[in-house]
Amino acid sequence: MEIREEAAYLSYETIRGAGGLPVGTSGKGMLMLSGGIDSPVAGYLALKRGVDIEAVHFASPPYTSPGALKKAQDLTRKLTKFGGNIQFIEVPFTEIQEEIKAKAPEAYLMTLTRRFMMRITDRIREVRNGLVIINGESLGQVASQTLESMQAINAVTNTPIIRPVVTMDKLEIIDIAQEIDTFEISIQPFEDCCTIFAPDRPKTNPKIKNAEQYEARMDVEALVERAVAGIMITEITPQVEKDEVDDLIDNLL
Known about the structure:
Strand order of the largest sheet: 7-6-3-4-5-8
Number of domains: 1
Distance between the termini: 49 Å
Organism: Streptococcus mitis
Structural class: alpha/beta
Number of strands: 8
Main location: cytoplasm
Low-confidence stretches: none
Strand content: 5-15%
Largest sheet: 6 strands, mixed
Pfam families: ThiI
CATH class: Alpha Beta
Mean pLDDT: 92
Shape: elongated
Keywords: ATP-binding, Cytoplasm, Nucleotide-binding, RNA-binding, Thiamine biosynthesis, Transferase, tRNA-binding
CATH topology: Rossmann fold
GO molecular function: ATP binding; CCA tRNA nucleotidyltransferase activity; tRNA binding; tRNA-uracil-4 sulfurtransferase activity
Number of helices: 10
Helix content: 40-55%
CATH superfamily: HUPs
């Protein structure tokens, strides 16, 4: 009951609104989008807080297939339901992964791979006027998501990194993925560039000085520049279901 000067109001039900903030009111962020369960959920949660996202996806053909690329694009299309058109940025990553594989010890392959991804995403962010980098890291879920690994990977940038699912367990993330209809796409059995060269025993507590020592064997800046120069950008739009199209046509006739 709410009593005011002019009247008394009785209510018996609370109806929740959409929640969140209008997309774009919080600025632009670059979403590091793999084909997994976590990163689309992270993108959705960023959209919910008003962040206009662009999806950055790393592809390593021929090690990764066209199916893996389509999977990432399909996940992006699912996210357009919550924020409109999204720019999908495909990054050629084969050369870098081959270079890391050839010149770094196996235990550090994942750490160096993620450091390169972070550098490239940050370079794209700078060119495209983004404010933050967003990813789907969940603390302790895999070797590259320990606090020590995050520190070693973060060391290559001063840009804020937003991790919307960092404190969630897998079941909580899956619940959201099912709610936003990305789960069934995410579990399709296509490899991504984080799994093709995954070591048997990755380092869970990598040291920054060691990572820098191994990177000194490579021309890091040239590799990053070539990857950024080779990006392909596709605008992903919401998909209108066939039944909706048929209904629109019927209404016009």
